Amino acid sequence: MVVPCAAAGLIEVLGADFDSSGISALFFVVVLCVALLGGVVPAALSALISGFLLNYFFTEPRYSLTIAEPENFLVTVVLLVVAVAVAVLVDLAARRAQQASRATALAEADALRRALLSAVSHDLRTPLAAVKAASSSLRSTDVEFSAEDTAELIATIDESADQLTSLVENLLDSSRLQAGVVRPALAPVYVEDAVQRALIGLEADPSSTVTDVGSACVLADAGLLERVLANLVSNAVRHAPGSTVFIRATESGGETTITVADNGPGVTRAAQQTMFDAFQRLGDTDNSAGVGLGLSVVRGFVEAMGGHVRALDTPGGGLTVAVQLMSPEPTVSSELTVSSELRASGARPVPSQSSEGAQ
């Protein structure tokens, strides 16, 4: 109702510059705009109002509903037909587009379901089979195991339980990322602290990792950063057995880059582009490339913290994963450095005079 009236007011103000064909064309544009944006009912109403305004104010004899020329009546009818036709087409296109959002969502859900089944059948079945075999052997009364054999079977159960725990954690993390419920609490975090917590959680062999991060500090969620590093180190150890894992950190241009590198077989350039997709390793025929669910969790957590992750070739062979995160403000970093040094030495910071007065 408003748009045709506004168009009529504009024509009345600039009436000297419009002839009958120009006025009709302007009303056509008005009706088309309403039809594109409003739907069938608003378009039809706009066409009727436009026809009335065109007839009453701008068609001879003016200021009456009498139509002297047949073509003027035809213009009004065409306005109504065009408005309804365009509105119907727009409505049909919108419905088809909505059906195509839904089809895409169903396809993605089906792909995720199939990938999840593949994960359960592959990564879940293997450690469960190992636990079952080891526990059945220990319960068997037909064979008397030595102390070394018993310890080895118990270690198998323990390692398989760790694999199951890691898989379940990654599945839960992936579900949280899909649901959009990951809300990182960003704060200055020392990379060294996060690395040590990750290695302790993995119970990694200290001789298999080399850490050179200095006093690098990042703006991150401590818990999420620990999970990122744990997944990267675990991935490197699992797919590059016998290789030393190098963890380094460099600061440049307000960003800190943390790299986790190994000297294993590495992956192809094509695989580097897709290795952070969910369940990517499980969908490949070759499961030795080292691209699994944990890496998709890594990407999700890093992006949730406002960073980026990418895969590179290790010079001399192997895979390097680089995680880029924002560095905290320099003043914050210096305060954290002083606090860390005092904590390491066992000393307590001396409050300033203003602090003592406030206390």
Question: Can you walk through the features of this model?
Answer:
This protein is α+β, with helices and mostly antiparallel strands and 359 residues long. It has twelve helices and seven strands. Strands 2-4-5-7-6 form a five-stranded mixed β-sheet. The protein has a two-stranded antiparallel sheet with strand order 1-3. A hairpin with a 2-residue loop joins β4 and β5. α7 runs antiparallel to α10.
Q: What structural keywords apply?
A:
359 residues, alpha+beta, two-stranded antiparallel ribbon, 12 helices, 7 strands, 63% helix, disordered C terminus
Enumerate the spans where pLDDT stays under 50 for 5 or more consecutive residues: 282-291, 342-359
Report the strand count.
7
How would you sum up the global shape? elongated
**Strand/helix succession:** HHHHHEHEEHEEHHHEEHH
Helix content: 55-70%
Category by helix and strand content: alpha+beta
State the end-to-end CA separation. Answer: 68 Å
Radius of gyration: 34 Å
Q: Specify the number of helices.
A: 12
Biggest pleated sheet: 5 strands, mixed
The main sheet orders its strands as 2-4-5-7-6
Strand content: 5-15%
Mean pLDDT: 77
